[in-house]
Every structure is written in C-alpha cells, then in structure tokens.
From TrEMBL:
This is Integrator complex subunit 7-like C-terminal domain-containing protein. Residues 637-813 form the Integrator complex subunit 7-like C-terminal domain. GO terms for cellular component: integrator complex. InterPro entries: INTS7, INTS7_C_plant. It comes from Cucumis melo var. makuwa (Oriental melon). Keywords: Membrane, Transmembrane, Transmembrane helix. The chain crosses the membrane at residues 165-184, 196-218. GO terms for biological process: snRNA 3'-end processing.
Amino acid sequence: MDKLQIIFYVRRNPSFLDANEYSNLVKAVENAARSPVKLKRLLAFQVLVHLSLQLSGKMEVESGVCSLSLLPSRVISLIMDQIASLAKMFLDLPQSNSEGFQEIKELLNLLLLIVREQSDLWILLLEKICLTAALIMKMHEDAFDGQQRDVDFEVNEKNDISLRFSFILYGFVAISVGYLGQVISITPEIFDKVKLLVNSVCQSCLFSSHTCIIYSLLLNCKFILSCRIAEDFRICNNNGFPHFTFCEDLTENEIFTLECAKKLLRVGDEWPAYMAGRHAACHGSWFAATLIFGHLISKVRSDIFHYWLKSLFQFALAERKIQFLLLPHYGSGLTIWLEKEAILNMFHIQEHINHHYTGSITEGIYYGKLSETYQCLFSSVEVLKAAAVPPVQSFCFQRWFLSLRAKILGTVGSILKTLLNVLCSISTDYGKLGTNNTGIILESVNEFSKLSLKLERLSHEFDLIGTTFIGMDTKSLNVISALALNCSLLAFCTGFAFHVPDLATTLMTENVDDFRTKLRAILIQNLTSRLRLVDDETSKMLAQLFEVTGPPNNCSHLVSRGKILDLGYEVRGILTLCRYAISEFIRMQSKSSGVDKETFLQVIEDGMQFLSNIVMLWISIPFRVPKRFFFVRPCIGCELFATTDVHKLDEISIPYGFHLSLNLCLQLKNITPNMSVQITKMYCILYCGSSFQELKHNGKNNGKNHQVYEAWENDDIVEMHNKLLHYVTESSKNEAYIGKCSTSGVCKTDRVIEVFVQFEPDEKGQGFSNCLFDVSHYPVGCYRIKWYSCCVDSEGCFWNLLPLNSGPLFTIHQLCSAG
C-alpha cells in the first residue's frame, strides 16, 4: 500500500512518474483491488477510477501508445467483475450480508463517476450490467430446485438476496437513465440495453411479479417520452406541426406493464400491489395504476382506506382518459388487450376510442374527453373531502393537488370550446363577416385573455404548494416546479395566440389593447422568471417580446418563488415545447405587422392553428404525480382563534360604529419532534370587507363548527400570499412596518380592511397577538374574517402555513337607545 499512499500526489502531478513506475503503480492498485479487506478494495477502486479519468489519453508509455491497463473501459470491467464476485459470494453465505450490499452500492457509484465524465461509455456500462445481471441470475437460478414463480414463490434468504440485488440494480439503472435524459438523449441503443435488462429480470424465476412490474416501468417510464419529444420536433407534417413517432413503443410497453400488473394481482398480496400502483402513478403509467387501484378497492376493510383507494382509482381513470387521446393510431392494440382481459368493463366503465382521428384538437372528441376527465378528478376530490373530517383535516396535499389538476384541465377544455366558437364564426371572405361574427371573435379573443390570466394564477398556486408542505422531498419539488412551468407556458401561449396590433382599431372597439398589453407583460414576466432558472437561452429569446409588449408595468404579483432544482427529464419536454412556441409566435408576429381588414382573418386563423397545435403538444407532455402525493399523514398547518371577551370565547359582537379589537392565538398543528425545520416567527394577514357577510351559525362565531375548510378554493389565495410575503420581507428590513394596517378596494362598493400580525411561537407551537379592525362603517350584520399565515424558520427560509380552519365570525349589532 506504499504506492497507494502517494497516489494523491500523483493525481495532482501526472508527470511525477515515468512510464515504468506508472505501470508498476497500476499493477499494485489492481492487486489491492483484489484484497480480501473491504476498505483496501474500495480505496484501490477509487484510485483506479480517479487515475483513469485524470490520466486517460495523457499518460503515454515509451512506445507512444496509451496505457491500455488504465483506460476507463478497463476500470468498468474490473468493477463489474468485483460486483459479480460479491454476488457469487452471497450465494454461499447462510444469510444476507448487509456490508456486501453496501459495497455493491459504493462500486456502482464509482461507475457513475466514470460515465458522467466519459459519456460515450454509457452503452458499454449498460451492456456490462446486463451481462453481469444475467450471470448472477443464472447462478441463483441454478441454486433453486423449483422454477415456478409467484404461486409457489418461497421467501427465504436466497430470495431475499436476489430481491435486494435487483432493487439495488434497479435504482442504479433508473438514476443512470434519468441522468442520460438530463445530459443527452435516450438513444435507441441505450433503450435496447435497458429493455434487455428488463426482459432478463422479468423472465427469471427469481423475482416476484412486484419486482417485474417495477422493472417494466423502466420501459414505460415517461422520461423516455420526454427525451424523445426533442427528436420528434424535427419530424414535421406539411403544415410544420411536429409529428410524434413514439406511440407504438409506448403501447407495447404499456401492455407489457399491464401483463405484469395482472400477474401481480392474481397472487393476491395487496401491499406489494399497492406499492406497484403507487410506483406506476409516479411514473405516469396510468393504465396500470387504474387496473391496480380499481382491483384493490374491494380488498380493504377500513373506511378511510376505501376512500383513499377509490380516490386514487378516479384520479388514475381521469389520466387514463387523456392517455387514450394520445394513442390515435396505435391505441387499437391496447384497446384490444383491455377488451380481451375484460379491463374496460370490470368496473362498469365504458371507454370509446376512435381509431381514425384526424389529429385536429378542435374536434369535439377532445373537448368531451377533457370534460369526462374533469368530472373524474372532481369525483376524486369529493371522495377525499368526505374522508377529511375534523379535527384531523386529512389529505390536504392530495385535495389541493387534484383540485389544481382539475382546474387546469377544465381551463384547457374552455380553450377548446372557445376555439370551436371562433371556428364557427370565421368566414373566408372578410366582406361576409357580419357584425355578429365580429362580436363573437372579439368576445372569444377576450375570453382567451381571461383564460390565460387564470392559468397564470394557477401556476402560482403550484408555487404555493411547493412552499406550503414543509419537508417535501426534492423529486416531488421538481415535479411541482415543472407543473408550474408547464402551466405558465400554456398561459403564455393562450394569451399571445391572437396577437393583432391595434386590435381595437381593427374591430372598431375600445378598451381592448390596454388590457391585453398589461396582461402580456404579466405573462412574459411569469414565464421568463421560471425559464431563467433552467434555460437562460430561451429566456433571452423570450425577452425579445418586450419590444412588442413593453416591460411589466406595476405588476401586482411578485416574481415566482418556484425553483426547478435540476434540468432532468421533468422539464425536458416542456422546454422543447417552450422553444417551439416562442419561435412560432415570433414568426406569427412578423406576419401580423401592418394587419388590415383584409388580412385580419388570416391572423385569426393562424392564431387558431398555433393554439390548437400548442394544446395538442401540451397534452402530450407526460403527467406524473409527485411522490409526496402518497404521503397521507396530516400536513403541518395552523389554526386561528380570536376573542374579544375572555368570558365569551365563542361569540364576538360589537355595536355599530365601533372598531373591532381581537385577541389572537395562532396554533401550529401536526408538528413532530423530528421536524426538519425550526419555526421562529409566524405571520398572519387578516382581511374583511363589507361584502363578507354570512348567516350566523347557532350563535357560535369562531368557525370551529365548519366541517372541512379548503383555503385553496379561495380565489384570492395567490394575491393574499403575495401581500403576506411582501409584508414579511419589508418587516424584516424595517421594524416600523410591523403591525401595518391597510385598506384596499376590491370593487367600487366594497372596502377591504387588511391587517398584518406577527407571532412568536412557544414550545407548544402557540403564538399570541392582537389587532384592531376599523369596521365602524360596516352595516349591521354578521361577517367572516378571512386569513392566511406563513412562518420563517431558523435558517431564514420562508414557508406558507396552510389554514386548517375558517376565520372568526363577528356580529355588528345596533346599539340600543337609552330609555
């Protein structure tokens, strides 16, 4: 090991050794890699990896030929041989060896170091993995007497070793292919190697159907679809519309996954089946998820589990309806399989698939299918709402996420419906375009503007989800941030599809251009702020549009707080579509300059074609659920309690013309001792308007009797959280800002009082404060105060806190006259 001790100096100074000394050093390290001592082996392999990467192509022997003994490909072979030796050793052990499995993981991590530096070695590595896996499976199969899987599958130490090895290998391949999707494309050669490994595992007698379905999802995983979108954009129809070529592969892989799911359900082991369904949903394999969750509904006894599985089934069914739309040419094979296996009618569900789609999204079939999808998602939310009884308030993340998905798809349906209205109103001859038709077109253009603004707001709701659920895993945050970007992109395309300069003049109307200019500034700012995090080039490309719309003027919202943590396959398809959309808009913009009455209709038709294509491609982008969706424990949130009189805790009442003074208690809920953050300060925004009147409920005003409170259903959630964030930011700079009270006008007849309050939580998670509402001008009646809250942790990070109860109710009564 003396030579190993000087290796760190050699790594920094590759010319320190001559050729002979270098050759001797390599031999010494390779011999150390065969040592029976684990630490010595791992150190030797680390040295080999780092030397091979640093000296490959640089270190030459006297003959002028590169040293073949230390090429990265040679090191890959040595490491894979060591993994095979460890696996063979497991076969002879009486029990599982945790240290051995840990060593395999560390060796696989070393392999990742090599191929990340030498990307041309990925195919070689995957080929070696397939060969090594086949060798190991053959050794273990020979050790078993029985060859029957699933029914007579015997759980013993040998099986346990096989399963552990298979999942270690699965994790490595999944990470590898995910990295490939981030850096380069998934080539046919790489896909074939992954497919070979999957087939080897699924055909082996070693593994259960649960293992097989997990592996099958590697082929069906939508990262392959996302990576191939970039290639398919180069293949266009005559009208320049990208033509997708991946449907046949996806259909074949979908059927393969369904076959594995069917075998798994036949075994009757519900927990592995549920885990497989969860995995399928997280990979966007909605056909398999629908089959599994639908089968499990009748297998549970608990009411809460029944609600949960029923909701999952409705969710998966909704997404499956959309996937049917993506298989117009190759979907017949999948439909035949489903009909053959009686899957379509096993839950009394009718699915109709048209095998002769023309590809036009303005056909009624798309709007109808999206309407069905919306209803399924709505049903899924309602099922969970029935299960979310106080005081637990369960499934908050799930209900909010499903509600957002339903709102987005409902908005997409409205876009299609509006496109149909425009299509029916357009005449090829502008002279035949009557006043009624002109009004319909103008109304439709305005409707697109409203829909784009709605989508822009929904993108910020995804940001709120990312900052509300404390402790969310990184992968789930990536999915949430990608969905926010996806929503922002569709908002941009919808708002910019019908870019007609001087639209008001063209249609002889007023007050159109000013609104659309402000709207487009908001849309550009939203999308640019997100793209800047992941694709600076496209962000700069988008900035060219500021020459048209001008910079944002007094935009009320703050820059998005959503962050995409890596440029993996979650955003690859979205970014590709984004580049396509921006380039198409710039092209359309040049055509629409100087538009007059004669060319106006052509601009409208171009906008319709553009938006139709975008929506079609947008639907094609894979949708997968974040892992956090299956974390069903109650989320961290808070409840607000208010009083004016300690003797009447349940009743708040003041005479007409008086101010309302409130004693407040903000109580953190569902906090755990091992919580990842330590909350140091909490903040609240309370607001009330004269239009916030309600009926008094049983004389109790504090809102505790409300069964299920869903703060995300309030239309002002984004605006109020932005105000709260602004307050927290300003109060941290200036203490005089604390306790600020303001009045804003929601409409001409209503003045909304806004009060900001700060709390310092104690060891029980309780914070106390007070505030004063100027409601002296409010008429007699009963009013509900609305509220939102947030917190700052010990690291200075900002989090939103989900309100778990409705705000306090107070009554203004007429002051009795004396005498």
